[in-house]
Amino acid sequence: MRKLLFLFAISLFFQFSLKGQPEVPVEEWTGKTILFIGAHPDDDAMSHGTMAMLQDHGNQIYVVILTSGNVGTQDPKISTTDLSRIRKKEEIDALAELGIPADHYINMGYTDGMLELQNKEEIMTRLVRQIRKYKPDVLISFDPGKGKMRWHKADHRSSCWLAADACRAAMWPLLYEGQIIHENLEAHEVREYLLFDGFPEDYNTEVDITQYLDVKINAMLKYVSQFTSSGWSKYEGPEMSAEEEKQFRERLLKRVIYKNDKVIEQFRYYSGSPEGIGR
Ligand SMILES: [Zn+2]
Q1: Whole-angstrom Cα distance, residue 268 to residue 142?
Q2: How remote is the CA of residue 186 from the centroid of ligand 1, in Å?
Q3: Of 170, 209, 221, 273, which has fewest CB within 10 angstroms of its CB?
Q4: Of 112, 111, 91, which Cα lies nearest the Cα of 101?
Q5: Which domain range does residue 211 map to?
């Protein structure tokens, strides 16, 4: 009897500890369409190792960024227009490092820092259109939270709630039906989710990105205006001095997560109807 109870406890432990993990490990995914939705042209950086691997393994990745990132600087000489252009190039160059083509990058051009104050119906219409157009199997996004709301800074929290709401709306043919009647689009249900930057206790999936660490770092090095001290306060162009690049690279390597001699990225994986993303 004791042995039976022990086996029952063990099976419960595995059932709960592994709950939510994809049946096929992310490392083995191929032939899927993956949509990333974020707020700023660098929000994808936390998932770059996974995205590089998925791209390499024959998946199609599209990246939708809601704002142009046009206020993210402390350099008084840069205008919002300048910064929009700088960050457009940084993002396209970073995605190129991952092997993702420039025409898979869609920027919706909203003002950085103001996403929460924009017209929600307009954003939802545009996001639902992208979901119906690309028909992703998987959404990658900030985690809106499981059971309780995950606090993120302003645009991040908006982007993940909008992404979750848009996935839900896209599956209902009578919502935004003009897209179906007049634009030849179809209702589409996204069934898998890789959610990052959530509550650490909710992570249920670790992706081994060891082989893609160099690619991840090289992509991060493109965000000169955001992550170098000179680029942030006195931007002089996309080139860095050798010394600055060396320091930047060392700083990035310190932020990487190692586990059992592997480099990993962590997610909450959810599979099922978008109605249940938060359950
Ligand atoms: Zn951001």
Answers
A1: 10
A2: 31
A3: 273
A4: 91
A5: 26-276
**pLDDT tens digits for range 126-160:** 999 999 999 999 999 999 999 999 999 999 999 99
Domain count within the chain: 1
Token pair of 47 as six digits? 């998932």
Cα 52 to ligand 1 centroid, rounded to whole Å: 19
Q: Is residue 174 part of a domain?
A: yes
pTM value?
Answer: 0.92
Say what the pLDDT of residue 231 is.
87
Task: Give 3 Cα–ligand 1 centroid separation in angstroms.
Answer: 51
Q: In Å, how far from its chain's centre is CA 93? A: 17
Ligand 1 centroid distance, CA of 91 (Å)? 12
Domain assignment present for 1: no
Domain-embedded: residue 20: no
What is the 120 CA–ligand 1 centroid distance (Å)?
19
Residue 42 sits in a domain of what CATH number? 3.40.50.10320
Summarised one tens digit per residue, pLDDT across range 201-255 is: 999 999 999 999 999 999 999 999 998 878 888 898 898 889 989 999 999 999 9
Give every CB contact of residue 86 below 8 A, 6+ residues apart in sequence: 78, 225, 235, 238
